[in-house]
Each structure stands twice: as structure tokens, then as C-alpha cells.
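Q: I'm writing a short methods note and want an example of a predicted protein-small molecule complex. Could you take the sequence and the SMILES for S-adenosylmethionine and return the bound structure as C-alpha cells? Please keep the output block clean; save any remarks for afterwards.
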Amino acid sequence: MKENLELLIQEVQRNSKYRHIDRQLIENVAILETAKGRSFKDSVKAVRNKLHQIANAYQPTSISYTKIIEKMISLPTDLKHPSVRTFCQETMRLHTSTRERLPELETFFLTSLGSMAPITSLLDVACGLNPLALAWMPTTPDVRVYACDVFGDQIDFLNRFFTYFGINGQAFSCDLTQTIPEIEVDVTFILKTIPCLEQIDKNIAPRLLANIKSKNLLVSFPTRSLAGQGKGMRQNYNQHFQEIVNGHNWRISQFSFSNEEAYLIQK
Ligand SMILES: C[S@@+](CC[C@H](N)C(=O)[O-])C[C@H]1O[C@@H](n2cnc3c(N)ncnc32)[C@H](O)[C@@H]1O
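A: Understood, no commentary inside the block.
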């Protein structure tokens, strides 16, 4: 049984699209999919499909971090320099989730986090390439930044990014359905991530929100699907969010953006 699971994981990883994904997440998805009693071949397909839906789908073209790093190391090391800002925007365009936020980058963090500025420490879970938006966030210059996601190559790049620009940052790989980081910070971002996590654990959201250590959480939901459909999504996710926080005596401020609905929770 254990050997079969190992073979299944190795087979999934044989496709380069899945090679960089956190092993714990692949194993978790593999256990869920094999429980459905499929053949080995169909299980491989099902695991890859699920990983695609929750992670790879946000990176429609494979991202060449080698090329991005080459470009980065030709830039000045001041994160606020105009050419660095352009580089960050161009790079964020490669991940669907940050690309959708670009039109409102100037206001998204200033509006949603303005009441608690300046931020001295933050944790960005299931971050994608969002740490590249740091120059647009109301933080202190020496802000401590923690960020996690499930792609090893992305994590390595984010650590290179932090080092190059002298950011007090640390990126790490983490399957949130298995491990909730225990880091105390001013604010934790859980941006557009709950619907992905719920595809493998439908009870994750209340557990995640309750167990994250920081007193402030910035949570958001997309208002349109990856295919661009937006019918009723804002209202549906708003209702879902109200169910998740139901029963907690938390202060909640809500912010509407064209592609995203955000909530600042103060525990
Ligand atoms: C919709 S994107 C959001 C990215 C980023 N938070 C943003 O708003 O720009 C969802 C992210 O969740 C990550 N992800 C999916 N499943 C995960 C898991 N089990 N643990 C941690 N991250 C996960 C994906 O790799 C992807 O970067």
C-alpha cells in the first residue's frame, strides 16, 4: 500500500509541471484520490488534475525563474526604484492571481490595510507571486516578511528576491491543509486562497482563520473564475465568508475591488 503510494507520487512527479510541487501536498492529494478505488493510471491522472486545479492553473505558462533572476540582478537594489517596480509588475503578470490585482495595485493594500499602517511584520500564505507587491504595501522599511506556497522553484526565487533587495524576508514551502504556520505577525494575508484549499479539505477555512496566530487577517475571494465568468460569485463568496466567521466576535471591515472582495478581520 505504502509502496503503491510512493510509486504514484513518483509517477505524478515525472511530469515536469508537478516536479516542483510540495511533496506533502502531492501525497495528501494522492491519498484522497486512491481512496476512490481507481486504477493506478486513472489515479495518476486524477492527482495531476487536482494539482492543476488548485495550483498549476494559476501559472498558465511555465515560469522561467532563471530568466527572471537574470533580469533582477541587473536592477538597482532599491525596491522602490521605478525600474524595480516595473520588474515587479511584469513578474506578477506571470501568475494569474497577481495579474488580476495589478489594475488596483496602487489602492488594494493602502485601502485594506490603511487602518493598521505602518505594518512591521506580515505573513502571506499561499502567496503566489504576491510578495512582489511589497513596494505597494504600507509597511515600515524594515518590515519582516514571511511567505509560503507549494512550488519549490517559486520559493527559491522569492528568497533570492528578498536577499537581492535587502528585505528581511523568508519564504518556505507549506501545504496549508496539513500545516498552519505558527508565526506571530501584525497581519496575515489569505488572499483568494480559501476556494483552492476547500477543493481538498472542505472544512479548512474556519480552522485556518481560527489557528493563524496573528490578530489581523486580510482575507479575500475572487469575483470571477479563471475562465472570466463572474456571475454571482461576489455574493456567493460573501455569504460563504459570513458562514466561516459566524460565531466569532471578530471586527470585520469589508473592501470591494473590481476583481476581488477583501475582508480585514481583527480578532
Ligand atoms: C488563487 S492563487 C492566490 C495567490 C496569492 N495569494 C494571490 O492572491 O495573489 C492560490 C494559491 O494557492 C496555492 N496553493 C494551492 N493549494 C495550496 C496548499 N494546499 N497549501 C498552500 N498553498 C496552496 C497555489 O499555488 C496558488 O499560488
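A: Remarks, as requested: The mean pLDDT is 95. The first helix runs from residue 2 to 13.
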